[in-house]
Queue: 3 jobs
Job 1
Amino acid sequence: TKVGGRNGFSVFDASMREQMQERRDLATGLRNAIGRNELELHYQPLVDLPTGQTGGYEALVRWNHPAKGVLNPDVFIPIAEESTLINELGEWVIRNALAEAATWPDHLTIAVNVSPAQMRDKGFLRLVANALAASGVQPQRLELEVTESLFIRDEEEVLKLLQSFRRMGVRISLDDFGTGYSSLKYLQAFPFDKIKIDRSFVSGLLDREDCQAIVQSVIALAKDLEISTTAEGVETDDQLEALRQRGCAQVQGFLFSKAVPSRNLPFNRTEGSDE
Ligand code: C2E
Ligand code: CA
Ligand code: CA
Ligand code: CA
C-alpha cells in the first residue's frame, strides 16, 4: 500500500527492496555454506545442580561468512526456515554434533536444536537413527530441543514422532518454555524429558515477582510430572543461588561459559594451550 505521496512511497520501497535483496543474498550464500565448510558448531555447557558438574553441551551453529564475519543463528536460521534449506542445514548440524560428541567422555549428553520444519520432514526419524549409528553415540546421550511452535499443527503426528524417539532412547527437551503457545496440556500430553526455562524469566528472577512465580511454578510442576528442568541464560551468582534454592536440576549461561568450539572444551584442552 502507498504511504503518503509518491516520494514517501519510493523511500519506503527502496529500503524494503534492499532488505529483501539482503535476505536473498544470505539465502544464496547459505546454500553454499555447507559445501564450503563455513558452518561451525559451538558448544555451551549444561551444568547439573546441585553437583555443579557439566552434564553435557548444547550445540549452537555459527556461520563464518566470507565477507560479514561470524554470524549468529538468529540472523540465518529464519532465512533457512523459509525453504528446505533448513533440512539440509539441520542434517549437517545433527551429523556433525554427533560426530564430535563421539570423541567426548561418554557420560556427556549432546543437545541439538531442531526446527519444526525438520521435525515434520518424513525422513527425520530415520536421519537421526542413521546419524546415531554412524557416530556410535548412544541414543540416550542425544537430546533434541524442540519449541512450542511445533505443536500448533499436526498434534497427532508430532505425538507419534516423539513417542518413536522415546522408544529409540533419544531425549526430548521443550525449549524456550513460557515464550510461545505455552499450554500446560502439552506438558501432560507429550513425552518430554526436560523443560528449558527461557532466559527472559531467569533474567527477571531477582527483581520481578511475576518471573519468580513463573520459575517457581514451572520447577514444581515439572517435578510433579517427573520432567527435568534447565534454566537458560544464567549470568549471575545470585540467579544461580535462587535457582538452586528452588530445586532447578540444571543451569546454562554465560556465568559458566559462552558457546565455544569443541577443541576449546575443557577435556580437549592440553595444558598451556590458550587458544
Ligand atoms: P536457544 O536454543 O534458546 O539457545 C540459547 C541462546 O542463548 C544462544 O544464542 C546462546 O549463545 C545464548 N545464551 C546462552 N547463555 C546466555 C546468557 O547467559 N546470556 C545471554 N544473553 N545469552 C545466552 P545463539 O547461539 O545466538 O542461538 C540463538 C538461537 O538460534 C538458539 O536459541 C536456537 O533457537 C537457534 N539455533 C542455534 N543453533 C541452531 C541449530 O543448529 N538449529 C536450529 N534449528 N536452531 C538453532
Ligand atoms: Ca536450545
Ligand atoms: Ca532456548
Ligand atoms: Ca531462548
Job 2
Amino acid sequence: MSDNKDSHPKLHIHTHDPDLKFDPPKRVAEVAHVQTFAQYEKMYEQSVKEPEIFWGEIAEQFFWASQPTGAFVQYNFDVRKGPISIKWMEGAKTNICYNVLDKNIEKGLGDKIAFFWEGNYPGDDKKITYKELFEEVCKFSNVLKQLGVKKGDRVAMYMPMIVELVVAMLACARIGAVHSIVFAGFSAESLRDRILDASCDAIVTADGVWRGPKLLNLKAIVDKALDFCAEKGKPVKSCVVVKHLTADGDATSKEEKGKRPCNSLQITMKDSRDRWWRELMTAASDHCDPEWVDAEDPLFMLYTSGSTGKPKGVLHTVGGYMIYAATTSKYSFDLHADDVYWCTADIGWITGHTYVCYGPLANGVTSVIFEGTPMFPDAGRLWDVVDKYKVTKFYTAPTAIRSLMKFGDNFVTKYDRSSLKVLGTVGEPINPEAWHWYNTVVGNGNCAVVDTFWQTETGGHVITPLPGATKTKAGSATFPFFGIVPAILSEDGVEVKGPGQGYLVFKQAWPGLMRTVYGDHERFETTYFKKFPGYYCTGDGAKRDEEGYLWITGRIDDLVNVSGHLLSTAEVESALIEHDSVAEAASVSHPHSIKGECIYCFVTLNEGEAFTEELSKELKQVVREKIGPFAQPDFIQNAPALPKTRSGKIMRRILRKIAVNDRDVGDTSTLADESVIDTLFSLRCPSA
Ligand code: 6R9
C-alpha cells in the first residue's frame, strides 16, 4: 500500500454525495464581478432574451472602426430552412490585436507585465510588458508583410510555448492574416496535412524544444513536412525560425537535460525559404497600423480531430470570438486588474488560444506562459510556479490533476498556495475524487473550483460555474454561461425537461461559436446540425439533476448499453477512481452475447500498487455497489498507461479495439505515446 492512501483519507467523506454543494468562498464572492446567483440569473436572462443588448453593451467596451451594417446578430441553426449561418456584427470593422494591445496601452497598462514566461527548466524565465509585446508584434507584422503575407492568407505555426508564439499570432491578427497553429508534438505527416488543407504560404517555427527531459527538433519535423508539401506541388514559400535552444555565440557549456542552450541540436536552413526570426526582427520597424477587418472576417483556424475521420479546420471569426473570449475570461475566472493568471494549456489547443492568449490579454491581466510539463523536474513543478509568481487564478486539465494525485500531497503542500483563489478545469469530465483533491489539497478548501465545459467549436466556456456566484457540486459543470441555451435531447430528438439524461445541444447562437469547417461547409452542417435540426449538437452527453445542475457524461460514442441500461463511461470510471489503489481508469463497451454490451475497464494504479486478481474482484464490486449490479464490469485489465491524445483526452476508440483484440486500431497520429498500445495488448484479459 502506498503512502498516498493515508495522505488524503478525508476525500472519502464527500465522494458519495453528488448533491453536496460548495458555497463560493467568501473572499472570492466579496470582490467578484457577479456576487450572487440571483445576479447571475438576471444577467443570464437578458443575455438569452435580448442578446443584441447584452452583447451590444459588452461590444461597446471594444474599439470598432465602424458599426455593423445590418442586424447585430443573424443566424440560422435549422438545415431545413437553408444553409447554416452565424453572423455577429457583420459590417463592423475592428482589429483584435489593436483591442488587446494598443487599447490597453492607451489605458495606461503599457508597463504592466503581460506575460511571465517560465521555461522548461526551473530558473529559465523572462517577462514582457504590454508595451514590449506591442513593439514585438508590430515588428513581426512588418516581417510578415515583407514576406508577402496579406489579409486573408493563412500562416501555419508549429512552436513551443514561448512568447514568440503569442507575438506571431497577434501579428497575424494585426494584418488580417489567419493563423493555423499546429501543436508542436504532431508528426510531420499531421503537420503536412494541416498545412495543405489550409494552403498556408508561410510557417513560423523554432529550432527545438525541451519537453521535460525530452528533446524535440522541431525544425527537422517542419523540414520533413515542407518537403512533402513541395513534392505535392504546393510549396510553402517562407519559414521563419526562432532560435530558442541553440546558442548564438559561444556554446561550450556542458549540455544538461531540459536546459538551454542545447548544442546537440542540428538545424539546417534552406536558403531560399528559411529565415531566422531574430535577423528579420532586427531589420523591421516597430510601427505597423492595424488592418481594420470585418467582424466576420476569419481570425484563425484550428484543427480538431474528433474520434474518426480527417481533422476539421474549425474556423473562428474576429468580432464574435473577441467579445466571447474576453467575457468568458472575465466572468469564469473572475479576472481583476491585480490577478496573476495561469492557464497551463498549450497554445496549440483551443484552451491556449482563448485562455492563454486572447482572453487574458483582452482583460489586461498578467499571465504566466509555461513551456514545461507538470512532472519536470518533479511532480511539484506546478505548485512551485504558483508560489513563484503568486498565481491567483489557475486553470488546468483533469488529466494533470489525476496524474499528480498519484504522487501524494507532499509535492503540493510543500509550496505556498495561499495566493490561489480560483481553480479551473477543462478537457474532460472531472471525476469527484479528483475534484475534491483539487479543492481540498491544492486549494486548501478556500478556492472556487470551476469546471468549465466547452469545445474548440464553441470558442469559449459554455457551461461553467461563476466563482463568486455559483454553488458547485463535485464533478458538475453546473449552469450555462451568458448567451447559452442548453437542452438535453433523447435519441429521437425530444427535449428532456427537468431531470434526465441525453444529448447535450444548444438552441441559439452565441458570439464565440465556430462559423464553418474551413473549406467544407457541408461537413460543418453534417457534423453539428443534421442529427437534430434546429440545434447545435455537441456530441457530448449530459445529465440534469433535480436541482437543474448539468453534468457532462462524456462523448456520446462512449456510452455503454448494458442489458438496455444506458451508462456513461464517466460514471463507471469515477466509481473506479474512488478506490484507493486506482489513479486513472477508462471503461469501454465490449460485445456480450447475452447483455448486448458489457463493460471492459482499464485501470492505472497508484505508485507502488500491484495489480492482482483480488483487486480486480474488489473493483468490480465497487462499481456494482456504487452504480448498481447491472453496471458491474465483466473485465478489468491493468493499464500502466492509457492511450491519450496530446491534449490529454483518453482515446476510448483505441481501447475498444484492444478489448476485442483487434489490432486494426486506426489512426493513432494524435496519440501522445503510441507505445502504450502494444503494452495494453500484451496485458489484455485473455477471456474477453
Ligand atoms: C476545451 C476543449 C472538447 C471536448 C468536449 C468534451 C470534453 C471539455 C469538459 C469536457 C466534461 C468538461 N470536455 N471540457 N467534458 N467536462 N469541463 O477541451 O476543447 O479539445 O475541442 O474538446 O472535451 O467531450 O466535447 P476540445
Job 3
Amino acid sequence: QQKLDSLQTADKQHFIHPFTDSKDLAEKGTRVIDRAEGVYLWDIMGDKLLDAMAGLWCVNVGYGRQSIVDAVAKQMQQLPFYNSFFQCSHPPAIELAQKIASLAPKHMNNVFFTGSGSESNDTNLRMVRRYWDLKGKPSKKTIISRDNAYHGSTVAGASLGGMSGMHEQGDLPIPGVVHIAQPYWYGEGNGLSPEEFGLQAAQALEAKILDVGEDNVAAFIAEPFQGAGGVIIPPSTYWPEIKRILAKYDILFILDEVISGFGRTGKWFAAEYFDLQPDLITIAKGMTSGYVPMGGVIVSDKVADVIKQDCGEFTHGFTYSGHPVAAAAALENIRIIEQEQLIERVESDIAPYLQSRLQELAEHPLVGEVRGLGMVAAIELVKDKELKQKFDSKTGVGTFCRDACIKHGLVMRSVGDTMIISPPLIMTHGEIDELVAKATLALNDTYQYVQG
Ligand code: PLP
C-alpha cells in the first residue's frame, strides 16, 4: 500500500495522462499495472485482472513472450539504432517490409515505416497529396473521412478522425479534411433495415464527392469497422457501395487497420475479410503486439510506382521509421502468429466461441445490442431495450460498468455507454468463460446502480 501511495502521489504531481478525465484521476487515483503474463495483468497491489482489451487493442500474441524479448535484446546488441533516410537501410527493416508485403493483399508490395498509427495517417495524408501532384492533378487534395472515426491524435490524425471532442480542442479539423456520417445502424438506423441503411450511409460519400467536386478529392479514409468509436460494424451493403463510388470517381482509398490488422478478424487484414482493395493500409498496434512502438503504411503498387519513380524525394519521414529494434520485435511477433496458427485459430475456433458466448449477454436487461466480429466486440448499454433509448451521458453508466469490471477482475474499456472487448488472440475457451462470467457480474452491479 505504501508503494502504491507513493507512486500515486508522484503520478499526480508529474504525469499528464493521455485521454484521462482529471476529475476521475483525482478521485480514484491511477491504477498502477505492474506485470503481465498471457492474458492476465497484475496491479501493484498484486490483484489479478483478465485483460479483455489486449492492452489497447494491441497485444495480439499475449504478454510475456520470451522470444520477442530475446529478439529485441539481440537486435539491441547488434544494431540498436540506425535510420532509413538517405539511401540507408538495415536487415530488420528490409526483412520486415518483405514479410509484410507477403502477408498483405497481392496488389500491395511496399511499406513506409513510422512509429505509430497517428504518424502513419499523417503519412497517408501527405502521400496521397504527393501522388496526385505527381499524377498532374494537384487540385485533388481533400480527404473525406467519417464522423466518430478514430485515426490518431496528431494534428492530421485528429483531423482525419471524426471525434467532436477532439475537434473542439485545437481548432480541428485542418482545412482539406471533411466528414460524412458513420454507418451506425443500431443508433442511427431510423427504422430502416440494416441493408437499406448501409446503402444510404455509403451514398453519403457520393454526395460529399459531388459537393466538394471530384477533381478536388484525393482520398477516402475509413476503418473497416470503427474501433474507438464503439465497434461500429457497417451493414453488409455498405462496403460494396463504397467500392463502387470510389472506382467511379477515381478516389484513393485508405483503410485504417491499426486495430483490425494482424489477425483480429481472423484474417491478416480486414481488407480480406470485407473483400476490399485499398490503395493504402494503415498499420500499428498488433504489428509488434505493442511490445515496442511501431507503425506503417502498406502501399499499393499503383501508389508506390508513382511515389518511387524517378521524381525527386518524398520529403517525409521519422527518425524511428523502420527502427531496427521495433522491426525485430515485429518480425518475431509475426513469426509467432504464423507458427502458432493464431489467425486460423481465431477464424475457426476462438472467435466464433467468443461471439456466441457474448451474445448470451444480449438477454441482460441493460444490454441493447451485442455486436462483434473476429476477436472484437461491443456491448451497448441502454436505458430502454425496446425503444433503444440511451442514458443521459451524465449518468456515467459506461464508466460505472468499467469500474465494476475492474472490481470483478476484468478489464473492459468503455466508449460512452458501450463496453468494448478486444482480447489477445491467444485467449482460451476457459478464459472466455471467465470473461463472460465477470462481465455478467459487472452488468448486474451496473443494473443495480441505474435502478437507484
Ligand atoms: N487508427 C486507429 C484505427 C486507431 O484505433 C488508432 C489508435 O487507437 C490510431 C489510428 C492511432 O494509433 P497510435 O495511437 O499508435 O498513434
